[in-house]
């Protein structure tokens, strides 16, 4: 597959920072959150509250630092070896010639989500959206993150090709989970996204995890009144 570095987008939205929630933006009059928050929500909703509403800062873990370093290395190598194109150009050209991109930015004001896809394969017959994760376990939270990338890409591109979401073991070629983005999957992820919007507009409560193992390893355990 030809490597394409997407550097231009035809649509630019005016964004405003939410007055009280760190990281939340207002785009076209609607709250818009980073897709990575789905991973946090699946781990513990109250973690979202502590970090983004209470603005509690936590130390960076060695695992987070290591992951960022690997991610940066891969991104730098890709930029050196790829041609610069616009989002619209690569969508059109990939209908006849397969291409691969990294750090593909996607945004959907309609669903209130945005994020960067680690890697995306655009083939004439299908789109494969890949998120790199440590380990080989497909947690519900990480699956939901990929599903939201699929939803945002579908909405942003208007492309009617079949879409698959995949999780890959970081630093390897091992795709340890892959799933077609079906109508049922789309309906399920929309429900979860709506719940997160409900957390931040006050219509739903932030629910803490009931898993003591998650509490034990949580970066916010010293600041959380629900820690077990």
TrEMBL record:
Which cofactors must be present for this protein to function?
Mg(2+); Mn(2+); iron-sulfur cluster
Please list the residue ranges annotated as the DUF83 domain. 43-224
Gene3D superfamilies attached to this UniProt entry: 3.90.320.10
Q: How is the cofactor bound?
A: Mg(2+) or Mn(2+) required for ssDNA cleavage activity.
List this protein's GO terms for biological process.
defense response to virus
Record keywords: Antiviral defense, Exonuclease, Hydrolase, Iron, Iron-sulfur, Manganese, Metal-binding, Nuclease
Give the E.C. number(s). Answer: 3.1.12.1
Pfam families from the UniProt entry: Cas_Cas4
Q: Name one GO molecular function term.
A: metal ion binding
Q: Does the keyword Protein transport apply?
A: no
At the top of the EC hierarchy, this enzyme's class is hydrolase
Query: What family does this belong to?
Result: Belongs to the CRISPR-associated exonuclease Cas4 family.
Entry function = CRISPR (clustered regularly interspaced short palindromic repeat) is an adaptive immune system that provides protection against mobile genetic elements (viruses, transposable elements and conjugative plasmids). CRISPR clusters contain sequences complementary to antecedent mobile elements and target invading nucleic acids. CRISPR clusters are transcribed and processed into CRISPR RNA (crRNA).
* Protein name as catalogued: CRISPR-associated exonuclease Cas4
């Amino acid at each position: 597959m030809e490597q394409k570095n997407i550097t231009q987008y035809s649509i630019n939205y005016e964004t405003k920072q939410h007055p009280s929630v760190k990281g939340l933006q207002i785009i076209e009059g609607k709250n818009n959150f980073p897709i990575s928050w789905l991973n946090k929500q699946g781990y513990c909703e109250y973690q979202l509250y502590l970090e983004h509403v209470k603005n509690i800062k936590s130390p960076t873990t060695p695992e987070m630092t290591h992951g960022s370093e690997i991610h940066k290395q891969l991104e730098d190598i890709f930029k050196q070896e790829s041609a610069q194109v616009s989002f619209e150009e690569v969508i059109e050209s990939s209908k006849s010639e397969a291409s691969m991109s990294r750090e593909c930015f996607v945004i959907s004001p309609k669903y209130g989500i945005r994020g960067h896809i680690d890697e995306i394969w655009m083939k004439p017959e299908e789109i494969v959206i890949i998120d790199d994760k440590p380990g080989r376990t497909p947690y519900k939270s990480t699956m939901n993150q990929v599903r939201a990338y699929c939803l945002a890409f579908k909405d942003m591109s208007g492309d009617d090709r079949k879409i698959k979401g995949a999780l890959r073991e970081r630093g390897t070629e091992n795709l340890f989970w892959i799933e077609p983005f079906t109508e049922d999957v789309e309906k399920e992820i929309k429900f979860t996204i709506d719940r997160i919007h409900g957390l931040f507009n006050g219509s739903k409560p932030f629910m803490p995890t009931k898993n003591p193992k998650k509490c034990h390893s949580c970066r916010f355990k010293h600041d959380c009144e629900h820690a077990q």
